[in-house]
Amino acid sequence: MSKVGWRLISVGNCARAPSVRFELSSFALLTRNLKERSSESGTTTAAEEESMWVIDAGDNMMGRLMEESWCGLEGLRRLKGVFITHLHGDHVFGLPSLLSAVKRAGGKQKVTIIGPSGMRKWLNSALWVGAPDLGVRYRILELQYTPYRTRNWNFHPSESGYKIVPMSDDGKWDLSEYIGTDHFEVKAAPLRHGIPSLGFVFQKPGRKLVVLGDTCDSSAVESIGKDCDVLVHEATFTKPEAQIAQRAYHSTAEMAGNFAKKIGAKTLLLTHFSSRWLSDNNQETFDGVRPSLEDPVSGLTLRNVQNINPYHGLVRVV
What's the whole-number mean pLDDT along residues 14-35? Predict the structure, then answer.
């Protein structure tokens, strides 16, 4: 029997460019797997395994991780994989430094990198220039994004595997067999953005977590994200900027609220706030999302909307 616990931690939730106080979009998913085993004598022993998974890696993510007591060097040695929603710099520029830090922490594990078409080309080219002797083994799962295709790219000496994962007939990806963990099952679906962008659905018995990349249309995630416990959705713009949001392939807080209602999310976490209007209380964000949530038949009210503290991060048991 296996018992799994997890925590979702906001490492940063700012869009496009960091500021002195606010970091770029990144999340850490901490999982604890307690397995009970019975011996021939009838006694039962429990073995605990802790792992860390990163969802997007904005610039200076490492600085934030090293400040946190739950991470530090030990946390880096538990890093199992990195899920990249898309290849815009504010979501991926921290990845090379994250991998380099695993080596400095003495990590011996192989790290799985999951991302959209172009992931291998981007990462290997960055590492060839800046870290040809990285010293950390990694493998890449590149989700083939119709109609995009990827070309082969130079093999980096630290790369220990590469696989193109084709989209299934239903327009989704089931990644559980590729990840190699019993901490959770994971699926992915495409989002509408200026470049290939992904939404990830993490599920374990009785719990479901949905984390979306940048998007102006999340409908492809609806079928696999239904009735989730937590939905993480970007809110780059506010309601008065709805037309700008659509042109930029981003969402408003109201759009995030509407999608949360549509899939029956129990809790909505807003993230990816524009630094142009980001403030300590982010009241404008709540003003934008309020009309779409205060529907008595939706079951989702402002009490279920978590405005992530952009500096200290949010720790939430899911």
Answer: 75
